[in-house]
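Incident log, entry 3
Record: Sarcosine oxidase (365 residues)
Problem: checksum mismatch between cached and fresh output.
Input:
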Amino acid sequence: MSARTVDVAVVGAGAMGAATAWHLARGGRDVAVFEQFEPGHARGASHGASRNFNVAYTEPEYLAWLRDARVLWGELEAESQVALLEPTGIVTHGRGRDLEAARVAISEGGFEAELLDASAAEARWPGLRFDGPVLHNPGAGRLHADASVRAFLSGAAASGAELVWRTAVADIEIHGDDDVRFTVTDSDGSHRVHARRLVCTAGAWTVKALAGVKGVTLPALRVTQEQPAHFRPRDASASWPGFNHHPAGDDPATAWFPAPVYGMLTPGEGVKAGWHAAGPQVDPDRRSYVPDPARTAALVRYAQEWLPGVDATAFTEITCTYTSTVDARFVLDRTGPVVVGAGFSGHGFKFTPVIGRTLAALASR
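Fresh output:
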């Protein structure tokens, strides 16, 4: 079995791996990205045309990252000459969230935030229904996920990164602080690779990729199949902000929700809405890609009750994966020559360029 050598190997070419490679290659590192599937595949968590750039966090560390992310998204747009982040604004409502506390924290964190009453919000966005105060963040927006991943990878390749597709990674072994070895398999067979650093950004396959690697300990990671849907808007010219709806157990209007709701307009596809982290646990290699009928029915009910601007009977479902930690905090760690980025818990995409910067820094030490 032949062997090759690379300075930094990135395993997984989704958003986080792509951003890591972008930072590493721009920094002059010798980097190779290994992806088991074809470019633009829809088996993981980085595909599709829309993600919310939501700034409704109260934690100062997340808000600091969002400030940096906003700058880095701009840098990627300038480099790629592709529009990636559109400032649509995002509204957050529901009695399950302290919206005034969020407004104060967001404002102190450097983002515009205002509270509107329900009638004012409905007059401005008639496609949504509100029954209480509404937090509006005008500087939030929508990211184009597919275009973002392509831009990171194209930028990385332009700076010298090697992109290796349809190539599985297995048998990772640590041989020293600056020596990690693994087997790659493609249509031509298998060979060993030696690297100074390996960055694992394998998403739902993280646990499988790192199983048995001596010294690498992961927190519990739960892989779920999620199933948002695009609903047909009644008025194709209507303006839609992104939205988040937080239920409360003592509120009869929302107590039936299985989880909070997120959504946004996806141009050309409809108004996207989904339950956040409500899907069943799955094996990423054995999932059905078939939406659960009960969750579909609940989402249709939500659209009927809370999205008057859509036709709740006209929708297209999609599926994706979440890989979540118990507390929804990200795993950004290093053991010897192995760096791990995982557990983005359904809210990591907006932070992608900052996460890539963090992982690249860990790999460069």
